[in-house]
Amino acid sequence: KKIDLKGKAVASLNSNSKRASLFAAKKERIRLPTYSDDFGGKKYHISEFLSHPSGIAAVLNTKALESFQSLDANTYRCELPKLQFLNFEAAPLLDLRVTSTDEDCLVEMLSCKV
């Protein structure tokens, strides 16, 4: 696992402006299981789970988001709840791409606006 968190806030003495630069990144890779039906026949891969809207909703944890919308077949816009940091309030808006294969799933952040 790798987690990087950085933050910097600047308040100008000559004006009422405030500026913040925030950065957070997490990279983690886990092996996903393959499931068989109850009769030991057909195998189900993560790609089949993610082909359904409920699978994407589970991976992106949409219940924790303020809003969630599909932009295209594998790109999603997620609005996070407002957060406060050093007297700043921000509502991050993320564009994420979800790419899956039979072996793994990649969630990639395409953009982040605050």
TrEMBL record:
InterPro entries in the cross-refs: DUF1997 (IPR018971)
Source domain of life: Eukaryota
The protein, known as: Uncharacterized protein
Source organism of the structure: Phaseolus angularis (Azuki bean)
